């Protein structure tokens, strides 16, 4: 009797796990029209290119809107998976950006911070976002505002600073970054 009960419970658990895996596999499938970085400017006519990462929480936030546009939108929408090795060349060079734009504004000695420049000048900058960090006993105003081309027309001038990003390829090509910006651009072309 005990063995029959154990077999029944084990069978029920196995069936539940299999059904759950099938559900997860089928609902997490992404049916996008993927292209690689080398194909971004090689499509016909006017179109969108959506720069995406599966694990990006902001991409997940607008996934339903992207899929709706793919099904009902006026223009074709292609997707570049920014986690793929072939597409990594598109990433903005944040390392060089920080090397050029970060500013050492103080130092730490015996656990105490000493400032040679007022950190509020950087923290209250209306055009550039800074973050204060301490690295190697130096206090650094880390420059967090990317300098990217909002109207790239070729691969060499295209930098993806983060995802989601959306490129509208047309007579007046436009690149936007962020959830609200991407949704607004899609809405313009409904």
Automatic annotation (TrEMBL):
Keywords: Membrane, Transmembrane, Transmembrane helix
Keyword Transmembrane: yes
Organism per entry: Halolactibacillus miurensis
Lineage: Bacteria, Bacillati, Bacillota, Bacilli, Bacillales
SUPFAM superfamilies per record: Thioredoxin-like (SSF52833)
Transmembrane regions: 7-25
UniProt cross-references to InterPro entries, sorted A to Z: Thioredoxin-like_sf
Name under which the protein is recorded: Thioredoxin domain-containing protein
